[in-house]
Specification:
alpha/beta; Aspartate Aminotransferase, domain 2; Aspartate Aminotransferase, domain 1; seven-stranded mixed beta sheet; 20 strands; globular
Length: 452
Amino acid sequence: MEEKILQLKNLYPFHMPGHKRNKNFIGQDLLNLDMTEIDGLDNLHNPNGIIKDAQENCAKIFGCHKSFFVVNGASSAIMSTIFSVCNENDEIIAMRNSHKSFYNALELSGVHAHYLYGKNFWNAINYDELENLLRQKSNVKAVFVTSPNYEGFCLDVKKIAQLTHQYKKILIVDEAHGSHFIFHEKFPLSAIKSGADIVINSLHKTLPCLTQSAVLHINSNLIDTERVKKYLTMFQTSSPSYIFMSIIDSTLKKISQPNFFDKYAKKLEDVRNILSDNKIIHLANKFDAKNFGFNDLDISKLTFFVNSNINAEKILRDKFSIQIEMQGLNHFIALSSIADTDLGFEKLIHAINYLEKNCEYKKLHFEQETPIKLKTALSVKQTNLKSKKYVKLEKSLNKISADYITVYPPGIPLIIPGEIISQEIIESVKNYMNKGINVLGVKENFVAIVEH
């Protein structure tokens, strides 16, 4: 395994983790940081020393009430959050394109979800639909939204917070891909500054931190902090990594210095200006975000729409030694961070310009990648208690799905347990697989259904 990983070290990483293997950000001997709860090193699950101080400094940097280090990734933070604000059989409003960890929380907790479906390709929510649900579903405890999405498009979180609080509910924002927002005015307004009650940041995605590094922020008095701490203890390891915690602390201290992000923000604007006229490999801009119903765009997320029948990921990897974050049906993402080098950006510009000049133009047509609205027969938890069997994908029509079918990355389920499999879903799964995109939950063309 180690040999295979090291073989790929010469690929330039326009993908997470955000440290980009740049030793200017993580240059420590990590073995010396791999410690445990000995005298003087505190305890993550009952902090009263250096970890307490580090978390308080984190909260000060992000501008919230309290921050908790999470060493099992944002997924465990999301699950801890759902358990913290909801009890079994409680109700929650959520975007249907939420991360799989949200659905894992539903399965374990027995919480019931009312879903928000977008009207367009990128699944921007309909704010009137949200308000109608808030008005009609009086038993709802919270609203769960994701912003930014994987492509860097941002919702109007301030408006969502106002609506949610108008109906005296709690707003939870999965801001996994927006940890860097607070560090420069060129980035979108953070969920914390927008008034969300709980915000989850996955630090390793867009900041120079190690994989699995995350933070859960409490940003209002509506949250039972002791309950949050309880579930964080339950969903995290009892042997938290001091490597992760110390790198979080040192990274935040370093990057929170005044003007630290100025050069990076300027570089992003320059890169965008250079690539702005491309038609075949179109770099998504703020106009696109508005056109799709979003409020803003994260300029650090370099999302390219492809107007050509090419495998951009393969070309970038094989010809230019660039590994991108992901490739979808119509687009690909080059994830940047403050740890990227000028040489890295130059390589990307050269590669994109090559694609622009050497690919045949095809009129842009967005294939459907938004969640398909499906009928629900059972809750996720109810489905988990049923027996299941495997059938060929083509034979699953109108059957109840017993498992997730998920496009990865980013980890958003096309279908969740308990939903009825439609012909549209079957065709969508086939389309992803035919284009070589990784689909979890389908093995040798078989899927799991509930056995009656």
